Each structure stands twice: as structure tokens, then as C-alpha cells.
Amino acid sequence: MLVHPGFDPVALRIGPLAIHWYGLMYVLAFLQFVWLGRRHLARRRDLALSPVLVDDLMFWGVIGVIFGGRLGYVLFYKPLDFLADPASIVAVWQGGMSFHGGFLGVLLAMLWLAHRRGLRWLEVTDFIAPLVPLGLALGRVGNFINGELWGRPTEAAWGMVFPLADAVPRHPSQLYQAGLEGLALFLLLWWFARRPRPLGAVSAVFLLGYGTARFAVEFFREPDAHLGLLGLGLSMGQWLCVPMLIAGAWLWRRSQSRLREAGRR
Asked: Distance between CA 265 and CA 245 in Å, rounded?
């Protein structure tokens, strides 16, 4: 049996300023996005995108993540609480961000930016898809450092006690997510996007890859205490993955249709 190390959530203190590990993970995620984006452009010279655009993608992506993540948490997980106290919606320092909300926020931000720059929306999402998973992995590492979002009880040898939960060994599901939604998905997308693909294909792989990984890991993650398991014994996270999987399958089929049509010309 393992015991969570109980890391100090504050990574660095400078006078009255406290830099938290979770916030630091966000900063690292955005920095790696820019670094990988420039590398991606360097290896794919066929892309009609500029290095300056990568900076804009990162900036508007940050806006989408913050606003979408917070609003998604409000709407998906605690709508009644926030209706009772609307002012708490902006209290991001109290915690509460939703990946699926942040994902929708980023999609809307990219739609606006693509329209402004005269680009196709899927062209933009295909470009950023391989740049996202490592940032997701960093976020899950931040969850692990904080000892939050722990897994369900387990008798496995690697079961870990999270003192903030109880004295029961649990799955370190944050690390499962970092490995599957993060590292494994990054390797798949980085390989898949190494050469030109039909429009929407890379985005489809992201949707299918993330949706599958998150759906699977949710079986090991403790459901939100105030929600528990929902219909068919699935968690909120799993139900939110269903539209991603459907959209990914549809987008993949559409991209392959484009490929077949191009082959007949």
C-alpha cells in the first residue's frame, strides 16, 4: 500500500506571493503549446500557418480554457449551487474547472480566430490537436500533487491512500489520466499528424482518443460526491465524453470521404 506524499500545494513563495503547483502546471502547459506548435510548423512546411499565429492560438486558447472551464463546471457539475450564489461563478481561486467546458471554450475561441484570419476552422483544430495532450498531462500531475480527484477504492498493490479522502487505498487515477489522456494521446497524435491528412482527420483522432481514454479511466476515478453515478451507472465525465465520441466518429467518416473523393479526381 502506498500513501500520497502530501505535497505542499504551494510550489514557491515570494513574500506574500504564493505560486501553486496547479497554476504552475497551467503555465507550463501553455508554454509547451507554443514550443510544440513551432516544432509542428517546422516539420510540416505544407501548412499555411505562420509562427505568429501560434502565439495568437495560445492567447485565445487560454481565454477559452479559463472561461469555458469555469462555466462548464458551473453548468455541468454545480448549477444549483451557483444559481443560489451567482457571484461565486467568478471565484476561480476556490477551484472548480471542467475539461469539457474548457474544451468547448477553446473550440469557440478557435472558431472566432479562424474566421478573423480567413482560415478553415478544422484546419486550425487539426493543427492544435497534437499540441494539447501534454498540457492535459501536466494538469493531471497538478491534480496528483494536490491530492485531489482521487480514484475509487482498490486492492491493487499500487493502491494509494489519499489523506484528503480517507484511509482507504485508492487508484491514483490522476496518473492514469496523465498517462492515457496525456502522454499516450500525444504520441498517437504527434505521429498521426506528421504528414498531411484529410481535413478534420487529426481532430477526429483527438476526439476519439480523448473520449475513449477518459471514458475508460472514469471507471477507476471516484465520482463527484455531490453527483455520484448517473444513468446506466456512468459518471458525469463519461456522459460528457459520449458527444465527443459521436462527433469524432462522424468527423472521421467525413474526413475519409474527402480522401476517397480526392482519390477519384
From this structure: 31
Q: Is the separation of the CB atoms in 180 and 213 below 8 Å?
A: yes
Residue 51 host element (H or E): helix 51-76
Q: Are 214 and 237 in contact (CB under 8 A)?
A: yes
The rounded distance, in Å, linking the Cα atoms of 57 and 117 is 11
Predicted TM-score (pTM) of the model is 0.90
Burial of 102 (0-12, 13-18, 19+ CB in 10 A): buried
- Could you report the average pLDDT of every consecutive run of 10 residues in the chain (265 residues)? 89 86 90 93 83 89 87 76 67 68 92 92 95 95 93 95 94 97 97 94 97 97 87 93 97 87 62
Beta-sheet strand order (sheet of 2-3): 2-3, 160-161, 169-170
110, amino acid identity? M
